[in-house]
Amino acid sequence: MKVLVIGAGNMGFTYAEGMASCPLLSKHKLRIYDTDPKKIETLSQDDRFEVYHNLEDCLPKSDVVFVAVKPYHSEALFEQMKPMLNKEQVIVSLMAGVTIDTIQQKLNAKKVIRTMPNLPAQVGKGVTSYTESEDVSKVELILVRNLLDTTGTSIHVDTETFIDASTGISGSGPAYVFYFMQSMLEAALKMGFSDYDSKVLVSNTFEGAIELFNQSNISPERWINKVASKGGTTQAAIDSMEDNNIKELIQEAAYAAFDRAVELGKDK
Ligand SMILES: NC(=O)C1=CN([C@@H]2O[C@H](COP(=O)(O)OP(=O)(O)OC[C@H]3O[C@@H](n4cnc5c(N)ncnc54)[C@H](O)[C@@H]3O)[C@@H](O)[C@H]2O)C=CC1
Ligand SMILES: O=C(O)[C@@H]1CCC=N1
To answer: Which domain CATH number covers 198?
Structure first.
């Protein structure tokens, strides 16, 4: 099986790295195509990949094609791809907001899998949601799932609305966590800790809390109760967050990303 990744940026390259070690690709090296000459030059020195700077040389003979360019680059790319495709190829999109219908129409393609990955895929801890057009067979879907899972874990969803919704939760979600981390780091610095100590305090607090959550069946709400003593310090912090409606504001932010994903789909 020949797999091509178009766009070797944050997501495309991460997927390429994950898939390169997949046993399904033992016969053929993973193919990468990008328009950035500097990227092509660097990637060409990596013998895990077959690197291309002409679409004609790689697209027609690829069985599965991952599209990982920015949504606003998709229009021009699709125009270029269309005459080189055949109906048996499976197109896997990693792009936010671009709908299956748009991809099918612009590419005259039948088999399309739309996914929403996230950046922790870079360390094998990604989560990808995916859904497919009618023409994708069960075997093709399992095969692509195996490829997606090389970067972490995946969930199948029945409709594209859940792809847009997972954009608001997991796709954009790492940025919300980093936002929270950055806020805590800045608070630690203000309190007088050094850069190094602030980082140690904050990163271990996040890591430890996640580990507790993952190793238990307890909701975050109940974990909060385990940290907070009545009338104590944590309660003072949680009360401050509740007074400022932080929970509602975070939910609003997640919905803003969800809505933007839907909107991106309508822009096309
Ligand atoms: N960065 C993230 O955390 C996530 C990104 N995504 C989606 O992944 C896609 C890519 O995002 P990033 O990797 O962050 O972007 P990026 O800017 O890091 O990478 C895009 C790559 O595409 C290349 N490119 C642009 N036009 C091209 C063309 N016509 N043909 C071939 N290559 C071309 C660029 O040179 C670049 O290497 C986006 O559609 C985004 O919605 C989805 C979930 C998470
Ligand atoms: O911000 C974006 O549009 C992409 C999709 C999810 C994460 N990054």
So the answer is: 1.10.3730.10
